[in-house]
Design a protein that fits this description.
InterPro entries: DUF4072, HAD-like_SerB, HAD-like_sf, HAD_sf, PSP
Order of helices and strands: EHEEHEEHHHHHHEHEEHEHEHE
Helix content: 25-40%
Structural class: alpha/beta
Largest sheet: 7 strands, mixed
Protein name: Phosphoserine phosphatase
Shape: elongated
Pfam family, one: HAD
Keywords: Amino-acid biosynthesis, Hydrolase, Magnesium, Metal-binding, Serine biosynthesis
Strand order of the largest sheet: 8-7-6-5-9-10-11
Number of helices: 12
CATH superfamily of the largest domain: HAD superfamily/HAD-like
Cofactor: Mg(2+)
Length: about 280
Amino acid sequence: MNLVIQSPAPIADSHLRPLVALARSKDPVRTDDTLLRLPDADPLQRPDIDAYCGAHRLDYAFVAPGATLADFGLVAMDMDSTLITIECIDEIADFCGLKAEVAAITEASMRGEIKDFNESLTRRVALLKGLDASALERVYEERLQLSPGAENMLAGARAAGLNTLLVSGGFTFFTEKLKARLGLDFTRANTLEIVDGKLTGKVVGEIVNADVKARTLRETCAQLGIATERAIAMGDGSNDLKMMAEAGLSVAFRAKPVVRESASVAFNFVGLDGLLRLF
């Protein structure tokens, strides 16, 4: 395998010798000062490489020689804390003075401590009852930011012929705006019930939980006529794990430990466009 080492900052020459030794590689190739490729690396060395890279704020990935981004046909992304930097529901809750309470439930759910995502979401949305729906627009306009490298990653994926899917346990208000803004091909999320300009504290229709995320990836691949092995799935929380398990390549982005441990690749430091630099 090729071992690809990335960093948001220049990779010091002092890292070359220990990384080559740990990977049992030779002849490292510097693509630029933030990217290092070690050919013929031993994947069984992953634990030692993981420890070294974590200690030095480096991201690493084992990539098959000759693999290209164009081998894939779909990139599926979680929204909150993956494509964007915030958890929308936590920011909405801030407008009714309940951010800390809602954020605590969100964090426990994403770490996998609350096993029932439906219950977790229902509890959080119920706390928003009576809030003026204009708070959604304010969250989008004032607080929502794309994660580093998001637009570059999407442009590179499109250039390589990949379709894009945004699948979220968050809300359609935000996914639809991002679909229009970023030119995404497919989206799936939860619909907040709004009556007379106020949130009712309820979600309309099927809740997009881990099973629905995985099913959406499968259905989108079927619609595109590709195998799920040709999908890339990116996420950060435990409700992304089933979707990521369906994909041929899974990327944990600024993710919870349970997700990092299960993913093919973890980006803890570089942006989402680190995906392009793997190949």
